[in-house]
Design brief:
With 194 residues, the protein is α/β, with parallel strands linked by helices. It has one domain: Dihydrofolate Reductase, subunit A (3-Layer(aba) Sandwich). It contains seven helices and ten strands. The strands form two sheets. An eight-stranded mixed beta sheet has the order 5-4-3-6-1-7-10-9, sandwiched between helices. A two-stranded antiparallel sheet has the order 2-8. The radius of gyration is 16 Å and the shape is globular.
Length: 194
């Protein structure tokens, strides 16, 4: 079971009804449309997420390119962003501080916990980083924003995760339903011994 601390790790991602977090060709499937024009029920979830996030962890694919970094300027998450990558961009600009971590998920979580204070370390993707964290027992809570779309194919969130080895056990904390997305939140435990 992931150790509970004052800096819990929350894996937070939007997902299609058939389990995909994006398209393989990187085109936008609209899984975050609800975030930019939220119904009242979703606004409560978004506000809570912004208020409780003390640091963010991302994979290189979720971060994008150096040019994309400038697009983060208007993010409501004005906290340090830890990007797991062996290919950091030459530079980034803007009010958000990006820390590029070549040493893997454990090191990124360690650095993010130190930066988060008493707030959550929120992991925003991608799928490979999410699977690595779940397999390593580093996720304390999982929040999925399930969008009623069937993509048919794309980037699966949980495919390839050895659930027997990971021993992931979920306990439902809450469900918030809206007309365009259902927010599911779980506490993550482990069935692994020792």
């Amino acid at each position: 079971m992931a150790a509970q601390s004052v800096r819990p790790v929350l894996l937070d991602m939007a997902i299609s009804l058939d389990g995909f977090v994006g398209r393989a060709d990187s085109t936008d499937p609209g899984l975050y449309d609800w975030y930019f024009d939220p119904p009242a029920q979703s606004k409560v979830v978004i506000d809570e997420l912004v208020e409780t996030t003390g640091a963010i962890v991302l994979g290189r694919g979720a971060f994008g390119t150096a040019e994309d970094a400038e697009g983060w300027d208007d993010s409501p998450y004005q906290v340090k962003h830890f990007v797991i990558t062996h290919r950091p961009p030459a530079k980034t600009s803007g009010p958000i501080e990006f820390v590029f971590v070549p040493d893997g998920v454990r090191r990124a979580i360690e650095l993010a916990r130190a930066a988060a204070g008493t707030r959550y370390v929120t992991v925003g993707g991608g799928a490979d980083i999410a699977r690595q964290l779940l397999a390593a027992g580093l996720v304390d809570e999982l929040q999925l924003h399930v969008v009623p779309k069937l993509l048919g194919s794309g980037v699966p969130l949980f495919a390839g995760l050895d659930l027997d080895a990971a021993g992931v056990e979920l306990t439902k904390i809450r469900v918030v339903d809206s007309p365009v997305v259902t927010h599911l939140r779980y506490r993550v435990g482990s069935t692994r011994q020792g």
